[in-house]
Inverse folding.
Protein backbone atom coordinates (compact mmCIF):
# COMPACT_ATOMS: atom_id res chain seq x y z
CA UNK A 1 0.00 0.00 0.00
CA UNK A 2 1.36 3.48 -0.96
CA UNK A 3 2.71 5.66 1.83
CA UNK A 4 0.37 8.28 3.20
CA UNK A 5 1.82 11.51 4.48
CA UNK A 6 0.89 15.19 4.41
CA UNK A 7 3.15 16.03 1.47
CA UNK A 8 1.75 13.33 -0.85
CA UNK A 9 -1.84 14.11 0.14
CA UNK A 10 -1.38 17.83 -0.61
CA UNK A 11 0.33 17.01 -3.92
CA UNK A 12 -2.49 14.64 -4.89
CA UNK A 13 -5.13 17.36 -4.37
CA UNK A 14 -2.88 19.99 -6.00
CA UNK A 15 -2.48 17.82 -9.11
CA UNK A 16 -6.21 17.08 -9.38
CA UNK A 17 -5.75 13.40 -8.45
CA UNK A 18 -8.33 13.68 -5.68
CA UNK A 19 -8.56 12.72 -2.03
CA UNK A 20 -9.10 9.08 -1.10
CA UNK A 21 -10.85 7.87 2.04
CA UNK A 22 -7.51 6.78 3.50
CA UNK A 23 -5.83 10.11 2.71
CA UNK A 24 -8.75 12.09 4.17
CA UNK A 25 -8.64 10.06 7.37
CA UNK A 26 -4.87 10.47 7.72
CA UNK A 27 -5.08 14.22 7.17
CA UNK A 28 -8.03 14.83 9.53
CA UNK A 29 -6.43 12.74 12.27
CA UNK A 30 -3.17 14.64 11.68
CA UNK A 31 -5.00 17.96 12.05
CA UNK A 32 -6.47 16.81 15.36
CA UNK A 33 -3.21 15.35 16.73
CA UNK A 34 -0.86 18.06 15.48
CA UNK A 35 1.00 15.69 13.10
CA UNK A 36 -0.03 18.05 10.28
CA UNK A 37 1.68 21.46 10.56
CA UNK A 38 -0.07 24.82 10.08
CA UNK A 39 1.81 25.28 6.78
CA UNK A 40 0.63 21.89 5.53
CA UNK A 41 -2.95 22.58 6.61
CA UNK A 42 -2.89 25.94 4.78
CA UNK A 43 -1.44 24.33 1.62
CA UNK A 44 -4.06 21.58 1.74
CA UNK A 45 -6.89 24.12 2.13
CA UNK A 46 -5.57 26.16 -0.81
CA UNK A 47 -5.21 23.06 -2.99
CA UNK A 48 -8.83 22.10 -2.22
CA UNK A 49 -10.05 25.66 -2.85
CA UNK A 50 -8.26 25.91 -6.23
CA UNK A 51 -8.90 22.39 -7.57
CA UNK A 52 -12.06 21.28 -5.79
CA UNK A 53 -12.88 17.76 -4.68
CA UNK A 54 -15.06 15.14 -6.35
CA UNK A 55 -18.29 14.11 -4.60
CA UNK A 56 -16.43 11.10 -3.17
CA UNK A 57 -13.54 13.25 -1.96
CA UNK A 58 -15.91 15.66 -0.25
CA UNK A 59 -17.74 12.80 1.49
CA UNK A 60 -14.40 11.30 2.56
CA UNK A 61 -13.25 14.63 4.03
CA UNK A 62 -16.61 15.14 5.79
CA UNK A 63 -16.52 11.69 7.38
CA UNK A 64 -12.87 11.98 8.34
CA UNK A 65 -13.36 15.38 10.00
CA UNK A 66 -16.50 14.10 11.79
CA UNK A 67 -14.52 11.08 13.06
CA UNK A 68 -11.50 13.17 14.17
CA UNK A 69 -13.06 13.37 17.66
CA UNK A 70 -15.96 11.96 19.59
CA UNK A 71 -19.12 11.06 17.65
CA UNK A 72 -22.09 11.16 20.00
CA UNK A 73 -24.66 8.41 20.08
CA UNK A 74 -28.12 8.66 21.59
CA UNK A 75 -30.51 6.19 23.10
CA UNK A 76 -33.75 8.17 23.09
CA UNK A 77 -37.39 7.22 22.46
CA UNK A 78 -37.61 9.20 19.21
CA UNK A 79 -35.67 10.38 16.17
CA UNK A 80 -32.67 12.67 16.72
CA UNK A 81 -32.59 15.57 14.26
CA UNK A 82 -31.01 18.98 13.73
CA UNK A 83 -31.17 22.09 11.53
CA UNK A 84 -28.39 24.30 10.23
CA UNK A 85 -28.51 27.75 8.66
CA UNK A 86 -25.62 29.06 6.59
CA UNK A 87 -26.11 32.41 8.34
CA UNK A 88 -28.05 35.61 7.87
CA UNK A 89 -29.43 38.73 9.55
CA UNK A 90 -32.50 38.65 11.81
CA UNK A 91 -32.58 34.87 11.40
CA UNK A 92 -33.73 33.47 14.74
CA UNK A 93 -35.45 30.42 13.24
CA UNK A 94 -33.41 27.87 15.22
CA UNK A 95 -34.81 29.25 18.48
CA UNK A 96 -38.36 28.72 17.26
CA UNK A 97 -37.74 25.45 15.45
CA UNK A 98 -35.83 23.50 18.13
CA UNK A 99 -38.69 23.62 20.70
CA UNK A 100 -41.31 23.17 17.97
CA UNK A 101 -39.61 19.97 16.79
CA UNK A 102 -39.30 18.75 20.38
CA UNK A 103 -43.05 19.38 20.77
CA UNK A 104 -43.57 17.12 17.73
CA UNK A 105 -41.84 14.23 19.53
CA UNK A 106 -38.33 14.30 18.06
CA UNK A 107 -35.13 15.15 19.95
CA UNK A 108 -32.96 18.10 18.94
CA UNK A 109 -29.42 18.23 20.37
CA UNK A 110 -28.64 21.43 18.45
CA UNK A 111 -24.96 22.29 18.15
CA UNK A 112 -24.91 25.93 17.11
CA UNK A 113 -22.45 28.68 16.31
CA UNK A 114 -21.68 32.26 17.27
CA UNK A 115 -21.95 35.29 15.00
CA UNK A 116 -19.62 35.13 12.00
CA UNK A 117 -18.83 38.28 9.99
CA UNK A 118 -22.03 40.29 9.60
CA UNK A 119 -24.31 37.36 10.56
CA UNK A 120 -25.83 36.74 13.97
CA UNK A 121 -25.24 33.54 15.95
CA UNK A 122 -27.80 31.43 17.78
CA UNK A 123 -25.54 31.02 20.83
CA UNK A 124 -25.05 34.78 21.21
CA UNK A 125 -28.82 35.26 20.99
CA UNK A 126 -29.61 32.61 23.60
CA UNK A 127 -26.96 34.05 25.92
CA UNK A 128 -28.81 37.41 25.80
CA UNK A 129 -31.21 35.76 28.26
CA UNK A 130 -29.73 36.44 31.71
CA UNK A 131 -28.16 33.29 33.17
CA UNK A 132 -28.71 31.15 30.07
CA UNK A 133 -25.57 29.15 29.25
CA UNK A 134 -24.62 27.38 26.04
CA UNK A 135 -21.27 25.87 27.05
CA UNK A 136 -22.68 22.85 28.85
CA UNK A 137 -20.92 19.70 29.99
CA UNK A 138 -21.78 16.66 27.91
CA UNK A 139 -23.70 15.24 30.86
CA UNK A 140 -25.93 18.31 31.13
CA UNK A 141 -26.31 18.56 27.32
CA UNK A 142 -27.52 14.95 27.29
CA UNK A 143 -29.84 15.46 30.26
CA UNK A 144 -31.47 18.62 28.81
CA UNK A 145 -31.94 16.94 25.41
CA UNK A 146 -33.49 13.88 27.04
CA UNK A 147 -35.69 15.68 29.58
CA UNK A 148 -36.80 18.74 27.59
CA UNK A 149 -36.50 17.39 24.04
CA UNK A 150 -34.07 20.05 22.83
CA UNK A 151 -30.90 21.81 23.89
CA UNK A 152 -28.92 24.50 22.07
CA UNK A 153 -25.21 24.37 22.83
CA UNK A 154 -21.71 25.22 21.57
CA UNK A 155 -19.61 22.39 20.11
CA UNK A 156 -17.37 20.94 22.79
CA UNK A 157 -13.61 20.63 22.21
CA UNK A 158 -14.10 16.90 21.74
CA UNK A 159 -16.37 17.23 18.68
CA UNK A 160 -14.67 17.48 15.26
CA UNK A 161 -11.31 18.86 16.52
CA UNK A 162 -9.90 18.68 12.96
CA UNK A 163 -12.44 21.30 11.91
CA UNK A 164 -11.59 23.65 14.78
CA UNK A 165 -7.93 23.60 13.69
CA UNK A 166 -8.55 23.80 9.94
CA UNK A 167 -11.18 26.54 10.32
CA UNK A 168 -8.77 28.78 12.25
CA UNK A 169 -6.13 28.27 9.55
CA UNK A 170 -8.60 28.89 6.70
CA UNK A 171 -9.64 32.11 8.41
CA UNK A 172 -6.12 33.55 8.06
CA UNK A 173 -5.09 31.96 4.75
CA UNK A 174 -7.80 33.18 2.35
CA UNK A 175 -9.36 29.73 2.10
CA UNK A 176 -12.75 30.14 3.78
CA UNK A 177 -14.63 30.46 0.46
CA UNK A 178 -14.39 26.86 -0.73
CA UNK A 179 -17.68 24.99 -1.09
CA UNK A 180 -15.88 21.69 -0.39
CA UNK A 181 -14.30 23.00 2.81
CA UNK A 182 -17.46 24.80 3.97
CA UNK A 183 -19.41 21.57 3.41
CA UNK A 184 -17.01 19.37 5.37
CA UNK A 185 -16.70 21.98 8.13
CA UNK A 186 -20.43 22.48 8.70
CA UNK A 187 -21.29 18.79 8.44
CA UNK A 188 -18.38 17.48 10.53
CA UNK A 189 -19.68 19.35 13.59
CA UNK A 190 -23.36 18.58 12.98
CA UNK A 191 -22.83 14.88 12.24
CA UNK A 192 -20.54 14.45 15.26
CA UNK A 193 -23.67 15.30 17.27
CA UNK A 194 -24.99 11.85 16.34
CA UNK A 195 -28.10 12.98 14.43
CA UNK A 196 -30.12 10.85 12.00
CA UNK A 197 -31.61 13.67 9.90
CA UNK A 198 -30.61 17.23 9.10
CA UNK A 199 -32.36 20.08 7.34
CA UNK A 200 -30.22 22.86 5.91
CA UNK A 201 -31.32 26.45 5.43
CA UNK A 202 -29.04 27.85 2.72
CA UNK A 203 -29.42 31.62 2.70
CA UNK A 204 -29.18 33.57 -0.54
CA UNK A 205 -28.96 37.32 -1.13
CA UNK A 206 -27.37 40.56 0.07
CA UNK A 207 -27.24 39.44 3.71
CA UNK A 208 -25.96 35.91 3.01
CA UNK A 209 -22.51 34.50 2.30
CA UNK A 210 -23.98 33.18 -0.98
CA UNK A 211 -25.16 36.22 -2.91
CA UNK A 212 -26.48 34.43 -6.02
CA UNK A 213 -29.04 31.68 -6.56
CA UNK A 214 -26.45 29.65 -8.49
CA UNK A 215 -23.95 29.81 -5.60
CA UNK A 216 -26.60 28.93 -3.03
CA UNK A 217 -27.75 25.98 -5.13
CA UNK A 218 -24.20 24.66 -5.48
CA UNK A 219 -23.69 24.87 -1.71
CA UNK A 220 -27.08 23.27 -0.98
CA UNK A 221 -26.40 20.36 -3.35
CA UNK A 222 -22.93 19.89 -1.91
CA UNK A 223 -24.25 19.82 1.67
CA UNK A 224 -27.11 17.43 0.89
CA UNK A 225 -25.02 14.95 -1.13
CA UNK A 226 -22.17 14.96 1.41
CA UNK A 227 -24.56 14.50 4.36
CA UNK A 228 -26.30 11.62 2.56
CA UNK A 229 -22.91 10.13 1.63
CA UNK A 230 -21.89 10.28 5.29
CA UNK A 231 -25.05 8.38 6.28
CA UNK A 232 -27.30 11.23 7.43
CA UNK A 233 -30.65 11.95 5.74
CA UNK A 234 -30.69 15.56 4.61
CA UNK A 235 -32.53 18.10 2.52
CA UNK A 236 -32.07 21.83 2.02
CA UNK A 237 -34.24 24.86 1.45
CA UNK A 238 -32.73 27.90 -0.24
CA UNK A 239 -34.31 30.92 1.46
CA UNK A 240 -34.22 34.64 0.82
CA UNK A 241 -31.72 36.87 2.61
CA UNK A 242 -32.17 40.04 0.56
CA UNK A 243 -33.77 41.50 3.66
CA UNK A 244 -33.62 40.56 7.36
CA UNK A 245 -35.81 37.53 8.04
CA UNK A 246 -37.42 38.92 11.17
CA UNK A 247 -38.03 42.61 11.86
CA UNK A 248 -35.26 42.74 14.50
CA UNK A 249 -31.50 42.31 14.28
CA UNK A 250 -29.56 42.14 17.54
CA UNK A 251 -29.41 39.48 20.23
CA UNK A 252 -31.97 40.43 22.91
CA UNK A 253 -34.19 42.12 20.31
CA UNK A 254 -34.36 38.88 18.33
CA UNK A 255 -35.17 36.89 21.47
CA UNK A 256 -38.02 39.33 22.11
CA UNK A 257 -39.32 38.70 18.57
CA UNK A 258 -38.97 34.92 19.07
CA UNK A 259 -40.96 35.14 22.30
CA UNK A 260 -43.66 37.30 20.72
CA UNK A 261 -43.95 34.74 17.92
CA UNK A 262 -43.92 31.67 20.19
CA UNK A 263 -46.47 33.12 22.61
CA UNK A 264 -48.68 34.56 19.85
CA UNK A 265 -48.28 38.05 21.31
CA UNK A 266 -47.12 39.44 17.91
CA UNK A 267 -46.32 36.73 15.38
CA UNK A 268 -43.58 37.38 12.83
CA UNK A 269 -44.99 35.49 9.87
CA UNK A 270 -41.69 35.15 7.98
CA UNK A 271 -39.98 33.50 10.97
CA UNK A 272 -42.99 31.25 11.49
CA UNK A 273 -43.22 30.22 7.81
CA UNK A 274 -39.52 29.42 7.42
CA UNK A 275 -39.55 27.47 10.71
CA UNK A 276 -42.60 25.48 9.57
CA UNK A 277 -41.11 24.72 6.15
CA UNK A 278 -37.76 23.59 7.59
CA UNK A 279 -39.45 21.64 10.37
CA UNK A 280 -41.71 19.93 7.85
CA UNK A 281 -38.65 18.81 5.89
CA UNK A 282 -36.86 17.29 8.86
CA UNK A 283 -39.97 15.60 10.28
CA UNK A 284 -40.47 13.94 6.88
CA UNK A 285 -36.77 12.94 6.68
CA UNK A 286 -37.03 11.38 10.14
CA UNK A 287 -40.12 9.42 9.09
CA UNK A 288 -42.26 11.17 11.70
CA UNK A 289 -44.46 12.88 9.10
CA UNK A 290 -45.49 11.30 5.78
CA UNK A 291 -44.29 14.32 3.77
CA UNK A 292 -42.93 17.86 4.31
CA UNK A 293 -46.35 19.51 3.99
CA UNK A 294 -47.86 17.34 6.72
CA UNK A 295 -44.71 17.96 8.79
CA UNK A 296 -45.14 21.73 8.34
CA UNK A 297 -48.76 21.43 9.50
CA UNK A 298 -47.56 19.73 12.69
CA UNK A 299 -45.10 22.57 13.33
CA UNK A 300 -47.95 25.07 12.76
CA UNK A 301 -50.03 23.22 15.36
CA UNK A 302 -47.40 23.24 18.13
CA UNK A 303 -46.59 26.89 17.44
CA UNK A 304 -50.29 27.81 17.58
CA UNK A 305 -51.22 25.86 20.71
CA UNK A 306 -48.31 27.14 22.83
CA UNK A 307 -46.54 23.78 23.25
CA UNK A 308 -43.40 25.06 21.50
CA UNK A 309 -43.40 28.14 23.75
CA UNK A 310 -43.65 25.95 26.85
CA UNK A 311 -40.71 23.80 25.73
CA UNK A 312 -38.64 26.90 24.95
CA UNK A 313 -39.24 28.07 28.52
CA UNK A 314 -38.21 24.66 29.90
CA UNK A 315 -35.03 24.67 27.78
CA UNK A 316 -34.09 28.19 28.95
CA UNK A 317 -34.61 27.19 32.59
CA UNK A 318 -32.63 23.94 32.15
CA UNK A 319 -29.76 25.89 30.61
CA UNK A 320 -29.58 28.28 33.58
CA UNK A 321 -32.00 31.05 32.53
CA UNK A 322 -34.98 32.44 34.49
CA UNK A 323 -37.65 29.91 35.52
CA UNK A 324 -40.41 32.34 34.58
CA UNK A 325 -39.03 33.45 31.21
CA UNK A 326 -42.18 32.69 29.21
CA UNK A 327 -44.34 34.90 31.45
CA UNK A 328 -41.81 37.62 32.22
CA UNK A 329 -39.57 37.86 29.12
CA UNK A 330 -40.09 41.61 28.51
CA UNK A 331 -38.78 42.33 32.05
CA UNK A 332 -36.02 39.74 31.94
CA UNK A 333 -34.29 40.82 28.72
CA UNK A 334 -31.68 43.60 28.81
CA UNK A 335 -32.53 46.86 27.06
CA UNK A 336 -30.23 49.52 25.62
CA UNK A 337 -30.07 52.99 27.23
CA UNK A 338 -30.61 54.83 23.91
CA UNK A 339 -33.48 54.08 21.53
CA UNK A 340 -34.15 56.29 18.49
CA UNK A 341 -36.79 56.10 15.79
CA UNK A 342 -35.29 56.36 12.30
CA UNK A 343 -37.69 58.08 9.90
CA UNK A 344 -37.86 57.33 6.19
CA UNK A 345 -37.56 61.02 5.30
CA UNK A 346 -39.37 60.58 1.97
CA UNK A 347 -42.36 58.78 0.59
CA UNK A 348 -42.20 55.72 -1.61
CA UNK A 349 -41.77 51.97 -1.40
CA UNK A 350 -38.92 50.05 0.23
CA UNK A 351 -37.34 48.55 -2.89
CA UNK A 352 -34.09 47.05 -1.55
CA UNK A 353 -32.04 46.61 1.62
CA UNK A 354 -28.28 46.14 1.84
CA UNK A 355 -28.75 43.45 4.46
CA UNK A 356 -25.04 42.70 4.86
CA UNK A 357 -24.38 46.38 5.71
CA UNK A 358 -27.26 46.34 8.21
CA UNK A 359 -25.80 43.20 9.86
CA UNK A 360 -22.37 44.83 9.99
CA UNK A 361 -23.86 47.86 11.75
CA UNK A 362 -25.29 45.56 14.44
CA UNK A 363 -21.75 44.23 14.92
CA UNK A 364 -20.39 47.82 15.18
CA UNK A 365 -23.06 48.69 17.76
CA UNK A 366 -21.53 45.91 19.88
CA UNK A 367 -23.99 43.13 18.98
CA UNK A 368 -21.22 41.07 17.34
CA UNK A 369 -17.45 40.77 17.45
CA UNK A 370 -14.99 42.94 15.52
CA UNK A 371 -12.15 40.75 16.88
CA UNK A 372 -12.15 37.21 18.22
CA UNK A 373 -12.97 37.24 21.93
CA UNK A 374 -14.75 40.66 21.93
CA UNK A 375 -17.52 40.92 24.52
CA UNK A 376 -21.02 41.19 23.09
CA UNK A 377 -23.53 43.83 24.17
CA UNK A 378 -26.77 41.81 24.04
CA UNK A 379 -29.14 44.79 24.13
CA UNK A 380 -28.15 46.68 20.95
CA UNK A 381 -29.41 46.42 17.37
CA UNK A 382 -32.41 47.36 15.28
CA UNK A 383 -36.09 46.62 15.79
CA UNK A 384 -39.36 47.06 13.87
CA UNK A 385 -37.49 47.20 10.58
CA UNK A 386 -39.47 48.07 7.44
CA UNK A 387 -39.54 45.32 4.81
CA UNK A 388 -39.28 45.29 1.03
CA UNK A 389 -42.58 46.42 -0.50
CA UNK A 390 -43.64 48.51 2.54
CA UNK A 391 -45.15 51.85 1.53
CA UNK A 392 -43.59 54.69 3.48
CA UNK A 393 -44.53 58.27 4.28
CA UNK A 394 -41.67 60.65 5.22
CA UNK A 395 -42.60 60.56 8.91
CA UNK A 396 -42.89 56.77 9.11
CA UNK A 397 -40.04 54.78 10.69
CA UNK A 398 -37.59 52.59 8.76
CA UNK A 399 -36.90 51.09 12.15
CA UNK A 400 -35.58 51.80 15.64
CA UNK A 401 -31.94 51.75 16.69
CA UNK A 402 -31.00 50.50 20.18
CA UNK A 403 -27.53 51.69 21.18
CA UNK A 404 -25.16 51.97 24.13
CA UNK A 405 -24.73 55.74 23.62
CA UNK A 406 -25.89 58.68 21.49
CA UNK A 407 -22.84 58.66 19.18
CA UNK A 408 -23.37 54.99 18.27
CA UNK A 409 -27.06 55.66 17.70
CA UNK A 410 -26.26 58.54 15.35
CA UNK A 411 -23.78 56.48 13.30
CA UNK A 412 -26.20 53.54 13.11
CA UNK A 413 -29.03 55.86 12.02
CA UNK A 414 -26.93 57.03 9.05
CA UNK A 415 -25.93 53.44 8.23
CA UNK A 416 -29.54 52.24 8.29
CA UNK A 417 -30.66 55.09 6.01
CA UNK A 418 -27.83 54.18 3.58
CA UNK A 419 -28.80 50.51 3.64
CA UNK A 420 -32.43 51.20 2.65
CA UNK A 421 -33.45 52.03 -0.93
CA UNK A 422 -36.79 53.77 -1.45
CA UNK A 423 -38.34 54.12 -4.89
CA UNK A 424 -41.54 55.50 -6.38
CA UNK A 425 -42.57 52.17 -7.90
CA UNK A 426 -43.78 49.23 -5.83
CA UNK A 427 -41.15 46.46 -6.19
CA UNK A 428 -41.78 42.74 -6.56
CA UNK A 429 -41.61 41.27 -3.07
CA UNK A 430 -38.95 38.53 -2.86
CA UNK A 431 -40.33 35.01 -2.22
CA UNK A 432 -39.34 33.61 1.16
CA UNK A 433 -38.40 30.14 -0.09
CA UNK A 434 -36.56 30.02 -3.41
CA UNK A 435 -35.84 26.34 -3.91
CA UNK A 436 -35.73 22.91 -2.31
CA UNK A 437 -32.87 20.45 -2.76
CA UNK A 438 -33.81 17.00 -1.55
N1 LIG B 1 -19.62 27.68 9.10
C1 LIG B 1 -18.79 26.65 9.40
O1 LIG B 1 -18.97 25.98 10.41
N2 LIG B 1 -17.77 26.37 8.59
C2 LIG B 1 -17.52 27.06 7.45
O2 LIG B 1 -16.59 26.76 6.75
C3 LIG B 1 -18.40 28.15 7.14
C4 LIG B 1 -19.45 28.42 7.98
Amino acid sequence: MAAVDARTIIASVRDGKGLSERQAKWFADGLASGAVSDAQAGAFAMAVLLNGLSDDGRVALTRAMRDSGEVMSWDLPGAVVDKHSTGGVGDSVSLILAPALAACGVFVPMISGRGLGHTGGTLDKLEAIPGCRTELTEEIFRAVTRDVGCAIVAASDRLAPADRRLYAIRDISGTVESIDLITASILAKKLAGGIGALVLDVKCGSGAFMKTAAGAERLARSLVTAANGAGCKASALITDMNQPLGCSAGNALEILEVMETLTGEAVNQALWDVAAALGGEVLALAGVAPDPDEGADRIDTVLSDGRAAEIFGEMVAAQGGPLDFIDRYPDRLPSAPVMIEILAGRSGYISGIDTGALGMEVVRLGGGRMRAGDRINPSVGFSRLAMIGDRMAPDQPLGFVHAANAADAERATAALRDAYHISDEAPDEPPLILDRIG
Notes: The two ends are 38 Å apart (CA to CA). Residues 81-328 form a domain with the Pyrimidine Nucleoside Phosphorylase; Chain A, domain 2 fold (CATH 3.40.1030.10).
